[in-house]
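Objective 1b: paired records.
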Amino acid sequence: MQPVWPHKSCPVPYVLLAVMPDILKPDLCIVGAGALGISLAIKARQRGLATVLIDRGAEPGDAVGGPIRRAAFVASAMHAHAIRTGARLGLENSMPKINFRAVADHARGVAAATASGTSAERLSALGIAVLTGEPGFIDGLTLRVGDSLLKAGHFLLATGAAPLVPDIPQIENISFFTPDTIPDNTRKLSHLLVVGGAATGLELAQAYRRLGSDVTLVPHGPLLDGYDREATAILLRQLREEGLVVLDGARVSSFQPRSQGIGIALEQAHGQTGSLDVSHVLVAAGRVPDLDWTASDKVRLRRRPASAAHLQLNAWGRTSSARISAFGGAAGEGNHHRALLAGERLLDSLAGRRPSRAYGRNGLPTLVHTQPALAQTGATDTPGGLKPGQAVLRANMNENDAARALGLGLGSAKLVVDRGGRILGGAMVGEGAGEAMASLAMAMGRGVRAAELARLPLAGTSALAVLQELGNQLANQLPASNWSKRRAALRRLLP
């Protein structure tokens, strides 16, 4: 189209407005309309930030309902296990009748009910502008989506992560599930092989075992890497008692497709080899950030030296570009709640609020949704051992009234404290582990000393009383103050 001149004296031509791209200048542009992106968009509007949300379609991990759908499936498995083990509470043990289609429909219904709160209509009513299309940076400050250009004050990447498929011979010749696709399964799996030692793999492995499947878990690398070793050992003992086969230290060396089932060649610990016949395979070996769309000469975001698939980020989620941050799967973080808390710190900063410094990157609690659950916060395992003045406090869940009343007394909790009683970290496996570690993380952020946990104001019987027990242990070790000693000496001098 030829430029149109409004007047002979005008030195600059302009094109018709109809062919000019829209230029939006919001405070914040969030790329990725999955569960994390939507949650952060809503929280950004609550802070008064003009927000645009880019919907690329189903983000990896959200296409099947994400964590909520998986949590509903795990809850069904927990109820089946409770029916099977009712004798521990004075009831008769029974064999539950499992209808996998009904279980899958229930999980799908729970996910659908939560999705209504994130509809386009509700987001629009909250003042969030939603653009649909595949985005692309045209420079470090501008993003193009269809015919629209965005020059946002800040860009937040919440594009999720796709399941990692390990390079195992013959894997391309078999059909396998991933954590994103297995919720669509509606029939019993006679023998499920779970490849991967991350939290999601253990959660699904226990759930399928409780729903009647034979399950073998091959970590194919570290098992619950980054989690406390003591707590992990207690959890594994419980999983094995339920009949889950965990081949710790083993790897899958190859798959062997067959007309009926799948053959597995194994490399076990200490150089031994073995084989296994299974009916189905779940690959839960981790996730890879969905960042291919950022691979452009227009914006060069640095990657981690040890892993080119991950962005190099600071403790606040900032990339090498001061105006671009990443959270959740895009940042290599698999825990939704940790990503949400970290993202909120950025939103506070953008809104001119003082960001909460209650949690550092290592202070946010992590949780494995098994039963018993495993949770931790801060530093618990120190490769070089305890430093001078540091100590470990431990408590057994068999002594917790709430856990014993529920028949769930297996587990333990521990705290790592320094010479002055400051809490460095904690880990717990057992009933209420997630809530206990969340409370502990808040206490750490507020500078609460371990001895003060003894005065935790609990209402009634609670699994969190384990924190009181840990606090009492330290309080009982503290020496009396000089004033108390002088007062006691004075009393002895009085007639």
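Objective 1b, second protein:
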Amino acid sequence: MSKQADKNVKVSKKKDFSPANIILWIILICVAVVQIFPLIWLIDFSLASSNEMFTTGLLIIPNKIQWGNYAKAFVDGHFLHYLRNSILINGLAVILVVVISIMAAFACKRMQWKLNNFVKTLLLLGMMIPIHATLLPNYKIYSYLHMTDTIWALLIPYVAFSLPQGLFLMTGFLDGVPVELEEAAVMDGCGIYRIVFQIVTPILKPSIATVCIMTFLNNWNEFMMASTYLSSPKWKTLPFSILEFTGQYSSNYAVQFAVMALTAAPAVIVYIVLNKHITKGVAMGAVKG
């Protein structure tokens, strides 16, 4: 038995170091380097001085690491104010998307009414519309309703364009939830809201985690809508911190890179920590759907 086990180990090692596997690893490493290089480039430029920006190389070797760029970006860029707005707006968007997508998925998949398939299809068609294609009509509507430069000017489109994706994931996962659980709850006298939020929602935890993460990441760095609808600093989000160091004739590029690094840090951390939940939720929803 031991000889046979040794042979199996040797065969597996040979397979691990086969030419095909080596080529595959080289390709994967090259792809990983290409994907992570923009982040390395961003951090490298954020630690240099503005005079060192104009170089012929892809990366800079600073004569002295400029940690002061981050201190200036944090203080002069009003980082905490913009960070608070970003967390508040994105947090509310995530909560609304999760709640509405759960109720919409339950209504379209479990409740029998004439237009359930039509409404589901109509909502899912929102995935085909680019968010920035609605800039002008939304601005006209907000101007007429006096909603520009308010939190609703960002919250409404963030929720509206994240909802189709949330509905898609929720309905796919809800197909795998046994209907018998809900029938038993009805027999016990449960109402519709208790069934949705106390029985169905806990089962949808993997899909809820995926919707929360993807909604947060999709809206975190959004700038075009915020710059169109907002004029005063009251509700401006974190990407606006970069504009604090943009002048009419010159800009402090080094500090701008530091601001971009600080802005990207929360999204990168969230993705690294919760990457497994994204993959798991999407895969489970696809299989169950």
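The first helix runs from residue 2 to 16. The chain is about 70% helix and 0% strand.
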